[in-house]
Structures are given as C-alpha cells and as structure tokens.
Amino acid sequence: MGLLTGSHQLDEADANNFGVDWVIHYQFEDTEMSQAIDEFRTLIQDLHEAKLQMQVRPGYGASLLVCIRVPRDYLGNMVYKSRVKDWLYGIIHEVPIGDEQTSIDAETAAEELRSVYHAVTWSKALGGAGITAQSGKWKNVTGTFPLHDPSANAELLRKWSRTLLLTAEDLDAIRALYGEKVAYYFAFIQCYSTFLIFPAVWGVFSWLYLGPYSITCASVNCLWCIVFVEYWKIRETDLSIRWNVKGVGALKVNRPQYVWDKEVRDSVTGEVVRVFPAHKQFLRQMLLLPFATVASIALGSLIVVTFAMEIFISEVYRGPFKEYLEFLPTVLFSLSLPWINNTLTRIATQLTDYENYRTQDQFDIAQTSKTFVMNFITSFLPTILTAFVYVPFGARLLPYLSVFYVGSFAKAGDTRRVHVDPSRLQQEVIYLSVTGQVLNFGEEVVLPYVKRVLVQKWRDYRQKYAMAAHGRRYSHRTDQLLNDVPDEASFLWRVRTEAEADEYNVHDDTLEMCVQYGYLALFGVSWPLVPLGFLANNWLELRGDFFKLSLECQRPPPIRADSIGPSLQGLEVLTWLGTLSTAAIVYLYRGEMADVRLSTLLLVLLTAEWAYLGLRFVVRTAVEKIATGSLRREAAKQYAVRKSYLDTISRSTSPKGRPRVRFQDRVKVYSTATDATTNTQEFLHPGQHESSSEERFWSCPTQDTADAGVRLIKALRAGDSIQPEKMKKGA
Amino acid sequence: MGLLTGSHQLDEADANNFGVDWVIHYQFEDTEMSQAIDEFRTLIQDLHEAKLQMQVRPGYGASLLVCIRVPRDYLGNMVYKSRVKDWLYGIIHEVPIGDEQTSIDAETAAEELRSVYHAVTWSKALGGAGITAQSGKWKNVTGTFPLHDPSANAELLRKWSRTLLLTAEDLDAIRALYGEKVAYYFAFIQCYSTFLIFPAVWGVFSWLYLGPYSITCASVNCLWCIVFVEYWKIRETDLSIRWNVKGVGALKVNRPQYVWDKEVRDSVTGEVVRVFPAHKQFLRQMLLLPFATVASIALGSLIVVTFAMEIFISEVYRGPFKEYLEFLPTVLFSLSLPWINNTLTRIATQLTDYENYRTQDQFDIAQTSKTFVMNFITSFLPTILTAFVYVPFGARLLPYLSVFYVGSFAKAGDTRRVHVDPSRLQQEVIYLSVTGQVLNFGEEVVLPYVKRVLVQKWRDYRQKYAMAAHGRRYSHRTDQLLNDVPDEASFLWRVRTEAEADEYNVHDDTLEMCVQYGYLALFGVSWPLVPLGFLANNWLELRGDFFKLSLECQRPPPIRADSIGPSLQGLEVLTWLGTLSTAAIVYLYRGEMADVRLSTLLLVLLTAEWAYLGLRFVVRTAVEKIATGSLRREAAKQYAVRKSYLDTISRSTSPKGRPRVRFQDRVKVYSTATDATTNTQEFLHPGQHESSSEERFWSCPTQDTADAGVRLIKALRAGDSIQPEKMKKGA
C-alpha cells in the first residue's frame, strides 16, 4: 500500500495545519490589475467583517491563497448557535443550554468545519462573509476549502489496508473528518459490499452446480436485490439517527440563486419565509419528461447506430480495411459522446436552475437525477441491445443493415451466412464485471495520481529554471512575501497542491456504485461469478475512493445529509428493471432461441412483475418490523428528554393555585376525591346546573350499591322461576 | 327526515344523562345466584377501588345496569395525565404545565370519555378497574359503554339532512362526540364522495359522447383512482395533525391477552417494556399466506360452482322445473356462505390471537386485514368470473358443464346452440351500483331499525301482561329498586335500550366503502354512470351510517387512531387491480371477442401495469409536493414551541460562568473576540500546544493582510509580463 500512503513520508511538521481553518484560492490571471486589487480588498474586508482572521500567501501562478482562522470562542459560539438551530428544527433532542455568548465544543472536526464553512459562505444577513466560489462577483475565487488532516487520513488508510470490512467506528471516523454526506457514500459501499458476499458465494455455487441461466439462481438474485434495497433504506434511517441528521434538509439555508415569489411571515414562528409555490415548481419539474425523452433519443440513437455499424463491420462486412474499420464505430462514438453529454448536461443545469430550488441540497438532488438518467442510458443501453435485440433477433435484423452498403462496400458483405453467437451477452457481462471495473479504477484513481505527480515534477523543474533565469528583485517586504519561510515551506506546498486539486463530488462515486449494482441486477444472471468480481473490485474501490478523497481532491466542506439522495430511487428502479430483465434473459437464453414465443415472454414478464411487487411488499414489511431498533431508541431518547424537561418545568413553575375545573355544561366541584373511601356525599357541593332528579339519582351512597345490586339479583333471579316468559324475552 | 330524528320527540328531560359517564351491563341469566352475587360484589369493589362512583338499576331480564360517574376533579386529573403522556410520546407539542394534582378541562367530550374508558378498562396496575366486557373473569359483563348525547346527535342529523357535503367543522363535531377512529371513517366517506363528483360528471359526459368501453374514459378513471388514493393519504396525515393524533399508536397500552417473552428495562427511559420479538411475530404473520390460500380456495370454489350451476341452468338446461331450479344455486350459496364465513372468521381470529399483538389497535388491524381478504373474494370474484371467464370464454367452456348431466337431466340441455351475451357484465355492474347499494342500505340501516322498534313493542306488551298476571311483592326496599322513579323512567328506558343495542364496528362501514370503491375501480369502465349511482348512494349512506351509529348502536368508546387502518392498503391494491382490470375489459369488450389474441392482451396488461407504476410515482410526488400545508404548519408549531421553551430555560438557568472552550488538540483561549476591529494580537494568549511557527504564521496583523495581498498581486502580475513561461504553467 505504498501507493496509498503517498510518496512523501509524513512527519509531525508535515501534518501541522498551522491553525488554518479554511483557505480561499483567489486567481487573477485574466483580470485587470486594478480590478484584481479592488476585488481582493473587498474580499479581505468581507472576511474581516465576518470576524475572521486571515493571512495571505502567494499561490502557484497569478493567484493568492487566503488562509482563514476563526477565533476559537467565536467558533464555539457558532457551534452552539448551530446546535440551537438543530434543536429548534427538531434534528436533535437534547436542548443546548446557554445564552447568546455561550461557546461549546464541537463534537467532531466536521461540525467545527461546518461552522467555519457557514462563516465563509453564508450571506452577510446571516452573519457570514458571503464568499461563494465561482459565482456572482466572486468568479475569480476559484476555490474555498478546508485543509486535509494528513495524519488522520494516513491512519485510516493504513488501518483499512489490513482489514476486510469497515466497522461502524470507521464510518464514524469518516463522518468526523468529512461530514455526513461523504460518510453516507462510504456507508453505502460498505453495506453493499457486505451484502455482495452472499451472491458471490451463491454465484460460485450456481456456477459449479446449477446450469447456466438457472431459474433458481435468477430468483435468488432478484430476492437478494429486493432485500438489499429495503435493508439499505432502514440502514439509512439508522445512520441518520446515529449521526443526528434525521430531517436535516429542513434547516438548510436558501441558495443565493433562489428566486422567491413572495415573502410570507409565518403566523406560528413569526419568521419571514421566502415562498416559491410548490405547484409552479412541480410544473417546471415536468420539463424533465421532454428532457429525458430528448436525452434518450440522442444517446439512444447514437448507441444504436454505433452498435449496428459495429455489428455490420465485424459480422457482415468482408471488404478491405476490415481490421481498421472495426474500430471506427467505437472511435466515432467516443468522439461524439463527450459533446452530446456536455450539451445535455448544460441543458440539464439550465433546467435545474429554472426549477428554482430553495436549498443547494435540493438543487444537487435534482441535478443528480438528471445525470442519472443520462448515465443509465449510456451504461445499460449497449448491453440491453445485445441481450434483447442483437442476440435474439440479430439473425433476422442483420439483413436490414444493408443500409450501410454504399459505394465500394456494396456486395462486400453477405448477410445470409451470419451466425449470431448467444454467448456474446456473457462475454460482454464478463468484460463489464472484470475488465471494465479494473479500467475504471485505473482511470479514476491511478491516472489522476500519475498525472498529478508528473505535473508537480514539471512545475518544480520549470520553477527552478525560471528562478535561475531571472534575478529580478522586488522591495524587501514583497520579497519576504514571495519567498516562503523555511518553517512554512512544506505546509505551503501542501496548501498550494490542495488549491490546485479537483473538487470531490460524492454523487459521482455513488452513481458509479449504482451503475455497478445495475449491471448485477440487470445482467448478473448471465454469468453467476459477476458478484465475485464486483466484491473484489469494491474492496479496492472503497480504499481507492478514500485515497482519491484524501490525497487527490480538496477536502469537501462537511455538508450534512440524511440519505444517499436520488441514488436510492435509482436503486429501486434498477431492482424493478432487474427483475424484468432477469426473467426475460432466463426465458430467452435458457432454451433454443427458435422456441421463443412472444406471448410466453409477455407472460413471463407479467409474472415477474407481480412476483416483484408481492415480494417487495413482504420484504419491506419484514425488514421494517425487524430492523427498527434505532427508531425505537430514537423514540425512547425523545421520551427521556421530554420527561426530564417536564420535571424541570413542573419544579420551576408549579402552579399551586386552586385546580381549574370547568366541564362542558355540567359543572361540579369536589373539594377532593382522592380519599374516596369516605362517604362521597360529604364532598358533594351541588353545582348550579345539577338538576334535583340528577341529585336524587346519585343520592344512594356508594357502599350501598353492592347491597342494592345483590337485592336486585335475588329479586330478578327469584322472578326468574316464577316469570319465565318475561325473563326469556328480556334476555 | 322523520325517520332519522327518531319516532320519539326529544325534550330537555329526554336528553338528560343524569351525569352518568359510563354504563356496565351485567347479565346473570346463566349463572348461579351465589356466583352472580360474588361476581357483582367484586365488580363493585373493583370500581370502587378505581375511585369511581356508581349506582345500580335493573336492566331488562336478568341483568343489572351499573351507572358510573367519575368525580370531576379526578377526571380532570386523568385528562391532565393523559395529556402529559401524549406529550412524552411526542403526540402533542405543547407541554401541559402542572403537577401530580393538576386537573384540567378536556377539549372535547370524547377526550373526557376516553379517560373514563381508561378508568373502567385499564388494568389495576395502571390505575383502572380492569373491567373488560366478555373476556376473562368478566364474561358476564355483556357490555360497557358511554351514553349517547341525544341532543347533539339530533342536531347533527338535522343539519346534514339539509346540506350536500360535510364541512371540516362537522368532522370535528363527530370527533368531539365519538373520537378519532369513527371520525376518520366519516372523513373518508366525505372525501371519497367529494372526489366522486368528478367521475360522476365525467361519466355522464362519456355516456353521452364517448362510445362504450372508451379508452379515454378508462384512462381518466384510472388516473382519478390514483389521485384519490394518493390524496387521501395526505388528507389522513392532515387530519392526524389537526386532531393531534399523529403517531398515537405508540402510546396504546398492552391488551390483556398479550403474552410477552421477557421484560426489558429500557436503558434510556428507565421504563419496563414487555417484549415479544418482532421476527417471531413476523413468522407467525406468515401464516396469513396459507390462510389466504385456504380462504380463496374455499370461497372461490363455492363461487365457481354456484356460478357454473347458475349458467348451466339458465343457459343450457331445458328440462322440467327450470323456473324453480334457476334459484337453486343462489339459495345453496346463500345457505353455505354464512357457515363458510363463520368457520373462516373463527380461524382468522385464532390466527390473530396467535400472532400476539401488543395493543388492541394492532389486533384489530390484523383481524380486519383478514376480513378484507375474505370480503374481497366474495364481493369481486363473481363479477371477475363474469368479466374475464364467462363472457370471453363462455361459449368454449359451456360444453364442459356436461358434468352436471346426471340422471333425468341427461340430454335435457344442448350446449351447442349457446349464445353468450357480452352485455351480461354491464347488467351485473348496473345491478351492483344501483339495486345492490339500495338493498344493502335497507339491510344495514332500515331493517335493524324496524326490528328494533318491533322488539321494543313486543317487550312492552309482554311486560304489561306479566305485571297484570302477577301481584307478587318483594320487600319495600327491593320494590323501590325494581320500580323506576317517574323522573328517571325515560332516562332508564334509554339506558336499557342502549344496553341491548349492538356494538358499532367502524371497520365494517369502512370495508363497505372500500368494496364500493373496488367496484368502481375494477368494473366502472363497463358502465360510465356507475360513479353517479355511487354518489347518490353515498349521500344517503353517510347519513344512514350516522343514524345507525347514534340511534341503533351503543356509543363506541372514543378510541383514537391516525388512519383508516388496513383499508388504506386495500385501496392501493384495488387501484392497482383496477388498472389491470380496466385495461383488460376495454381490450376484451371494445371489439369483437373473436379478434382477441392472448399476446396482445398480455401486452395491454403489461403496458397498463407500467403506466400505473409511472403515473403513481408522478401523482405521489405532485400531491406530496403541493398538499403539504399542514405538515409545514406542524413543523412550524413544533419550532415555535421549542423556541418558547428555549427562552424559558435560558432565562431560568443561564450559566453566566466563563465559556468553556476546548478544541480538539489545538487549544487556544481568547478573552473575547466579538470586537474584532482591534488588533487580534492583543487578545492572543498562546496556548500550550501552539507551536512557535504557527504563532509566527499568524503574526501579521489582519489589517495588513489586504496590503500584503495587493503587494503580491502587483509582484505576481508584474512577473506575469516578465515570466510568461512560469505563470502560464502555474495557471
């Protein structure tokens, strides 16, 4: 794991953050000097007004690094206020005791950093400095980020390189370092990988003892998918309670771009709420439908054409340059995909902007949903085409590919002697679950790392060269600023590197896992060893992602979340599609393709659909019933907290006056009724409304009631023998 | 509405309840006199120990009526304690201020009666008298019930006879009189009837302008069903917030029959919880599957056989006694159905008992679910058979009915000249939506009313006769007890009538509405005027049900609930089935039966299923987004309450000590940092762990930061023109 712990050895000095809480990276490459100076002065002024301390250092190139520190007891006060807000919104149950000046300890580094983040980014009205990177007047601020904690990161990586599964404490550690949003991703991949163990073992068993496309294997896999998704839902709630973030979406602040229709003073809380009507937003969200259609058509047709060309060239075409032409479709596809994807993403962003979400969270969720749609199409459509179009109908469809016969290619192919190989699906699935995953990991983690190291080396070399070439000197003061103090050198090197690093987007990683889950759910049945491949991959993936997060990306602001977001819906849709796809694959590939009948296929699909709905209901009920420990604990905690309040309040404000008694229209006042053994008549003060007949009704003393009843029983029972007629009728 | 206001005129005296809160009906018809006396003494003793006042009066036949009154301030204290419990469990947000002796007003009569109910029925450990009717040692207690409020009932009935729709205030009035569980039923029928207006109007339009089995009509109906169910879910939550009953299931007490595995002391609340493992219960619940199978087979085969016989006799049979034989299957069915239903209900009750639910609520829900399964089969299976078996395949299946050719019937029929009439489905649906509903109403409301009046008349006549025949006299004291005081006569007449009345089961009425909804969802498309018929019926049904509840049944204990219970799941299943059924009916009946192809039918079903899933998702999202006003208000209310607590607490317990500041491992203490315009260095007291390099890093005063930055900008920008190489690389 030498790669993971980094090429430079960590010592105490390297791990020192010099008390810097936050860094702002200001670039003025393309800005007039006077404008840059004005902007920078405003920046410093804004930070200063937000009661922050700062120091400035040169960055790489035409950029400055503003190091920010929040005075400790101001920070403690912010943490306290944040806790109070949490409590007011019902996120936590323990009331934070204190007043305006109270300063309390943060529970984790992430909680502390979140307050710093708020101090830097929140609008001035909320007491922050209002610095949001790359937006509005701060488009020259290319990044605002906290510094990594190198020793904690290295320790976690070292620990995980020796273990198989993450523990709850590891997840807590991630949460303490990076906040709940990131921790949710790691909790998800951890939960998913643990769940993968079962299908991996079962897959090996199926591979050895059950035939290919076994119905048993398929059913077990589908059931596993349903159980996993339902369990994860409960697990999410569990974690949200463990991390005190349940319902945290409610207290997020408005994003700067939010446009509201009117300001309404809430009649209950008395606070001003900026309202954008929900039905308007919903109508705007409906634009997702045409967008999804356009995206599907654009990406779908691209994929279909590529696929058809590829098939044509590899299977039918017999003309010249076959070996080169074979790569043509993939090359064309790879060239046009980024352009289409970029266009679609731009449209998606505009749509999401137009949908006008109140909080950044909601915005992210909406944007991610759209990315999902696009990603699912590009990820799954090629394999879907192979599984359900090419292999079953290929022999019948290939002749139509004659549309490609133009010019010199004419007559170069012969469609009649085409033989479609049903194992093509399996090959594709094997590629996806083994080669694809490895390549993906390389592209995602190793490549950027190598690139970063090379860029760094190149930069150092050029810097040295430039230094040697120029001897120009500034004023002593400026020179002092330009050259790093030896003490700070390695620290500043780290800050500069982090300033140049990419932002970490947790949604991308989550999406990647969802796509993997999708392959498993949709096509897993065609090669039972798929889960085994994924399991091995995920062991590396988890560590690789943490490596990327901690060493290759900026430390993300520790944002809170109580779910993995729209991915959850993605998982549900994939599970549903997976059941249908699995059923269809098993039916199509199990026997001879020629025996396939449409009505049987439809019946199989319908049955699979109903089985899915039924099983999901049963599994959901079972999982909810059994795995609700933490919900119960949550309720118990709330109960305990309320109980203790009640004691406090009743002790401090116990009203010792006369108990108020006013009952509907029949008012009766008893002096006391706790001692009920004495005659009740003594306590009876007839009320105003009590009629004399009512008084008489209740006049018989209580202890006589039993005797009266006994008399009646005797009388009625005696009458029983004499008046059988009457009694029978009355019974 | 003379029928509804009752045959006897209400005057002030009639409406007087003599301050009686609760009545216990004790019957000793089949009990030894000595045992009866012992039991009765125990009963009085138990009530006495629960601090209740009582009076005894003779009932009809060998029975006694124990009238119970709770001392007013003891009741007020119980109401207070109940509120405290509500608050502890998070049902209400306002904390009830007070101490052990506090006595407060109930908000509604129902709240008051609920406390009385608890005083009578709760176990002695909880401070009640532990009297539960017809169970355990109280099997001779045939009923415990509160008395009706005749004037309030009459007023509501009078008001509703003049209006079309119920208002929110009407629902509140029902809630105030009968508690939330009953009010939920009326809210449901009210919401459902209001929703019916749209399909009624649309149905008339379709009937006039669209052809039969129109696709447009079918799609609109299905969409309406989805919207209705999703809206009702939101409405339920809305009402639960309006009535302060959200999550009320949590605080219900254990039912006496509950068996627990172990007692656990909750580590957080410190209370003893009686635990029965959830997974055990779930496994027991799984027995529902074999039960549903057995019930389906038993009822299904009965229905199929009846159906086949009926068809055979009416369509095929040409022998003697045809006019009498035609009724034979229905008669046989009617005779065997009660027996089968009773057997199944007995099994269902045993199953539910075995499932061992903690609260009566959960028990009721589980029992109702099972009743649902049985009811759905008997209600819908005959029409399903007509729609999907008899009409489409009748001509092909009828020849197989030759199984009935026995003895003299042989050769009496001719299956070849059978013509199946496709309009039979429509006729059946018309019957169900018009005739069936009217008959049902008569059976449910009018018949019991007539029966009750006749029984009453007969009893009065016999009593007079018996009096005249016998002159036997008891002791003066007993005689006084046996003969009603003139003042009390009409009151006691009412109490005796109520004691003899049936218990009101709200689940039955809800179920009836669900079945009606089911007809609409499943078969509505075959006759577009169905909703119109249902709408007219429901106007009467709502009033008839209230009439039944208030004049023909005992007043039910005012139990709380936050939902209509398992009916909601029933509605969802019916909506789903309805989509499939509607699609299939439209496909089958639209064209010629002969053109029907299985694969097309399956395709239609699959498409309908997917359309249903997609639409439901969209509708759910939309309804949740738009109709969440009261959820927001709920959150705002909680916020306001917490805010006021916070103010109270921070005023009373403000800790004016030195603010605690302890931060991770880098401890720094500032005297104060609120005045940040002065030089920060003045406030800096270097902490123990602060390294000297860190101290030096922060040594530059804040106001110099801007200048330093400007210097750097100038230097780097100047360098820009001189060292383009270096800067470009750094960018």
What features would you describe in this structure?
- Two copies of one chain form a homodimer.
- Chain A has three domains: 126 residues, no CATH class; 383 residues, no CATH class; 62 residues, no CATH class.
- In chain A, 62% of the residues lie in helices and 5% in strands.
- Chain A contains 23 helices and eight strands.
- In chain A, the strands form three sheets. Chain A has a four-stranded antiparallel beta sheet with strand order 2-3-1-4, with helices on both faces. In chain A, strands 5-6 form a two-stranded antiparallel sheet.
- The longest helix of chain A has 46 residues.
- The termini of chain A are far apart.
- The N terminus and C terminus of chain A are likely disordered.
- At the A-B interface, helix 1, strand 2, strand 3, helix 2 and helix 8 of A face helix 2, strand 2, strand 3, helix 3 and helix 9 of B.
